[in-house]
Amino acid sequence: xxxxxxxADQLRPLKITRNFTKHAEGSxxxxxxxxxxxxxxxxxxGVPRFLKGKGQGWITAEYGMLxxxxxxxxxxxxxxxxxxxxxxxxQRLIGRSLRAAVNLKKLGENTITxxxxxxxxxGGTRTASITGGFxxxxxxxxxxxxxxxxxxxxxxxxxxxxxxxxxxxxPVLDLDYPEDSNAETDMNVIMNDKGGFIExxxxxxxxxxxxxxxxxxxxxARKGIAEIIEAQRAALFDKE
Amino acid sequence: xxxxxxxADQLRPLKITRNFTKHAEGSxxxxxxxxxxxxxxxxxxGVPRFLKGKGQGWITAEYGMLxxxxxxxxxxxxxxxxxxxxxxxxQRLIGRSLRAAVNLKKLGENTITxxxxxxxxxGGTRTASITGGFxxxxxxxxxxxxxxxxxxxxxxxxxxxxxxxxxxxxPVLDLDYPEDSNAETDMNVIMNDKGGFIExxxxxxxxxxxxxxxxxxxxxARKGIAEIIEAQRAALFDKE
Amino acid sequence: xxxxxxxADQLRPLKITRNFTKHAEGSxxxxxxxxxxxxxxxxxxGVPRFLKGKGQGWITAEYGMLxxxxxxxxxxxxxxxxxxxxxxxxQRLIGRSLRAAVNLKKLGENTITxxxxxxxxxGGTRTASITGGFxxxxxxxxxxxxxxxxxxxxxxxxxxxxxxxxxxxxPVLDLDYPEDSNAETDMNVIMNDKGGFIExxxxxxxxxxxxxxxxxxxxxARKGIAEIIEAQRAALFDKE
Amino acid sequence: xxxxxxxADQLRPLKITRNFTKHAEGSxxxxxxxxxxxxxxxxxxGVPRFLKGKGQGWITAEYGMLxxxxxxxxxxxxxxxxxxxxxxxxQRLIGRSLRAAVNLKKLGENTITxxxxxxxxxGGTRTASITGGFxxxxxxxxxxxxxxxxxxxxxxxxxxxxxxxxxxxxPVLDLDYPEDSNAETDMNVIMNDKGGFIExxxxxxxxxxxxxxxxxxxxxARKGIAEIIEAQRAALFDKE
Amino acid sequence: xxxxxxxADQLRPLKITRNFTKHAEGSxxxxxxxxxxxxxxxxxxGVPRFLKGKGQGWITAEYGMLxxxxxxxxxxxxxxxxxxxxxxxxQRLIGRSLRAAVNLKKLGENTITxxxxxxxxxGGTRTASITGGFxxxxxxxxxxxxxxxxxxxxxxxxxxxxxxxxxxxxPVLDLDYPEDSNAETDMNVIMNDKGGFIExxxxxxxxxxxxxxxxxxxxxARKGIAEIIEAQRAALFDKE
Amino acid sequence: xxxxxxxADQLRPLKITRNFTKHAEGSxxxxxxxxxxxxxxxxxxGVPRFLKGKGQGWITAEYGMLxxxxxxxxxxxxxxxxxxxxxxxxQRLIGRSLRAAVNLKKLGENTITxxxxxxxxxGGTRTASITGGFxxxxxxxxxxxxxxxxxxxxxxxxxxxxxxxxxxxxPVLDLDYPEDSNAETDMNVIMNDKGGFIExxxxxxxxxxxxxxxxxxxxxARKGIAEIIEAQRAALFDKE
Lengths: 240, 240, 240, 240, 240, 240
Hints:
The structure is a homohexamer of 240-residue chains.
Chain A: E1 14-18, E2 26-32, E3 35-45, E4 58-65, H1 77-80, H2 85-99, E5 110-120, H3 125-146, E6 159-167, E7 170-173, H4 177-180, E8 185-192, E9 197-204, H5 211-238
Parallel strand pairs in A: 4-5
Antiparallel strand pairs in A: 1-2, 2-3, 3-5, 6-7, 6-8, 8-9
Keywords (chains A, B, C, D, E, F): Nucleotidyltransferase, RNA-binding, rRNA processing, Transferase, tRNA processing, tRNA-binding
Family (chains A, B, C, D, E, F): Belongs to the RNase PH family.
InterPro entries (chains A, B, C, D, E, F): ExoRNase_PH_dom1, ExoRNase_PH_dom2, ExoRNase_PH_dom2_sf, PNPase/RNase_PH_dom_sf, Ribosomal_Su5_D2-typ_SF, RNase_PH, RNase_PH_bac-type, RNase_PH_CS
């Protein structure tokens, strides 16, 4: 019934490749089916002005799409001289979500920038960015600890994200582009490894959605998040 | 227990003044406690380029804060030459929510712009903008029908919004600024008059939030939305 | 003979409301007939770079119109990313005029920003901004003195502004929009309470204007300014 | 008594060189003492959008200073990405003043752009731009008539501009930079060849100025304008 | 003697992967040692305004670096709101070079945009972009021919590029970052498959360079270009 | 055979006027035939951030064209809010070339900005800017030495630039606009007074160019540069 033939609660194949490029403190290629995003983590000593002297660090994120990562080419934002509203919204969401994974006091006066650049888009680029960005962030934290820049790893919980929706009346997990563009409702769910919610953003695309639909979407989201958390853990601990 | 002394599920005093300024097709001053927003609706014949020739209309929104609507002055975005990420995010939310109230086909090739300008801020400016913006939109639709620009009123449902949160462990309704800046979780809920969800955006501010908290927040939101829907109706039908 | 039925030298009803919003050090709603402007004064410790270490303060002004304060909606400057030439010109005039009211040495190293935001426009928004801005400025100065941030009130004179013009060959006072758009000449006059000129800007709109017209316009301006000075004084001293 | 040794009502040496560069329809170098401005007039068929289909033409102006035309270098506006408020104000004044010289109906659907670029600044660059810009405009009109693009020369009057001020208590004509930076009052006067006023902009620099000072400034302005009008005429008619 | 141990006239390992992403008409990953660039070609029907109605097509290029493609992170140009001078210079060079490969008349009124996005930088990103961009362009042309949008393949010659330099007094081929940042002279050479020059840009980095050095650099460039031309051909014809 | 009737290796009349304007430390009008550029040098104490504390100075350049310096008016970059790619490319070339003339250590922590503003364009404006810019730079260095801001003149060599090209199959020197727009190849050559190359930028305009053409262009360039070097020397040493 789904265009991809998947079960309603089935994720797309998920692949997380660490050390994808060589310069960044953390560098991850995340592939969720045909969606491919490079997530890098850059550590810089110092904090933005509004945090000066507060004895804490900062996590921020930036997001971009290569102009031809999509079906038809989108304008290069650098050439337009302006990020779109969608980009701004997404990078704020990524930053907010990843800050929830970290004790900023333990990070000291360091700033970590997570860059999420979409190489190929097929739905779910923002949730892939959060999931992959967490792995890059975790790698950067290890570098900080190994280099004795900080004493203790400031990661307090693991963060993962997934999109869910209502497609032909059924709650489904991990929408790809053909589903995303036809779903009645679209919801991004960001959770931690203890099952707590970090952020929920649900939007009715045509009809309003009911309590029942929301409960159904949350149920498939919970299943998907558990699998993604597992995949992150495997990438971070088993594969090195 | 709340700084304002309100009950956990009690709204702030809500006042909706129509025809607040004289030029716009719809012009509303909405006051939610000390939060005051001017919402105007402007009708222009024609549609944006991406809708040309599709035989439908468009609803869009813009949001701004007077520089000294807040405790300390914020930079004037027109002088900075750029809207902040927060502004962009809010005006996209307002536009999306209000489009859910309208049959765009019945609107014909007309564009309605909802301008929400915050005169005084005390928490909840984005939800006040949606609630007040709906009333301005409804007035503009009446003008279109009265002037025979369209045959039928394209409003399909009534839309209202409210913020809820978890404050000192308790789900509370309609956060003011002192609560908003100390809440553990903050959630904006936009619903229609049939009890369907249009949009939900919940964000953990420190700790992740639980299912139980979410259910609690949705419960107070539902109560608040019902009262706001009533107040909008009173403003639109009884008071004229 | 005037569209409004006023005498040639008659002001529109003038209303000055202090403490209009709650956060600013000075906050004034000025209403000149249907023209309504919110003027706030914000005090910040410190001065712009070009005044660093000179032992003096600074007064600056910013001006904006709500997009639908006018007959047809004007683009939101924050969204366009640029203030129009008209806006720039007006806010420079407001700042220059209000600096003439103040001994900047006595202000110490403080900067006061006057924000003038037009809620509803019906001609004369720039002169209303100066007149209302002066009252907001005076309130901010009182706050500075009361809080012992400065020893002495730095206000040296009272400043008021009015537009005059030649309409159907006759010099008239305080042009509203229908007159303004049809006047042969338009002149903004800013004066102090001792009858001295702070700034004069007269523009022929079609025909050049003669000495005689100028003398006539100055005469009605002088009468109007005297009444406005009185109204400011009443607002500042009697009504509190 | 004046730094330059001039009489109170004496102009600086004024030199107008036509055909200064070879590409423009009108190209003038105007030298007022050490102030040197290149004024070119460019004719393009067509009008700005707001005039489409109204059967009239348009005159607009742009102003710039070479970065090192002044004592200390000013930022190049093209590199900053923004014109300063002062520039915007000046180019609006030039455009408005020159439009007063022209019957725009007779110009047909043509747009003339006057570019005023200051090569060397020593006070009075905006009035030099208007005076020189008029000559460039007149040359462009002749080209249009000679090339039979229009039937009749649309110039209706001759426009000239001068700055006057109060320096050490005395009204003086044509301020150079040392005077300009010390004058108590500064006034720009734009008039036509029939003695009518096109625009007056007077600004008190410290003290307010009196009626008497204004009358004194207008008297010297009138004398100066008459001489400038004569010089323009000589340049346009005798020297070719 | 070279940091990499290569011979003076030895290229880095060169790998060209076609069909790297799935949406673009041409999509190439080019790897020159550790320098990795994604080059995509996008075909759009229509031409820029300055070519309307001339019966020809257009090739243009855009270039960007992922923020952490380099040793230390560079600002995201989309966030700064401006492309750097270096970026502008590079993308103009890429566009100019690739237009030399094409008969624009035969392309018809189509525009091809080559996007070159650097994933990992280690010297020579602009020449890699040209070499890889040509392959993406060639693929896009095949698509146009296969889809019968044009009759004949408009490619007239094969274009490749390489950097050469003088390092420790010796002309060397294909500088990597450690060489590039220490070379006395740096020259980019773009040639076609007939041995003709398309563009040469040589810059002395400290000392001026001599005729002898130039001849030496051209000699190694010629050898390198021949090998690159061969590699492009293999990628385009043999591997499919 | 050349449109101007010149020999293949003949320069246009070259005129260098020092002290062209009065404020700058160096101010030169350079005229190469009908191409006229004002080059000024401004000295400011201090260096850009990336050189702080390195005990050296900096040379930078900016370039602009008056809007009507060309056949048809180009947009004023200050009004567009953006410099074109061409402008950025040119000003980077001028700065790079002139830095090659200077020992930046001996300059101390001073920054010299060379402003090149084209008054009239007829081909070769970038090379004229470099040639004239060098003379302005040399004058500024003398001022620094005379005012004892630095001990020793930091100029290490003389820099000059010329364009050459292949026109109707023949290598020619110093292209004017009619040649430039029809040349098959266009090459800018920047050399010092010892015959070393500072920068070479050659571009094929239609056909690729051969070794033989390159050798021919370099030969005429060498002849032209020698004459220009002589003219700079005459301007700097003989004429004062």
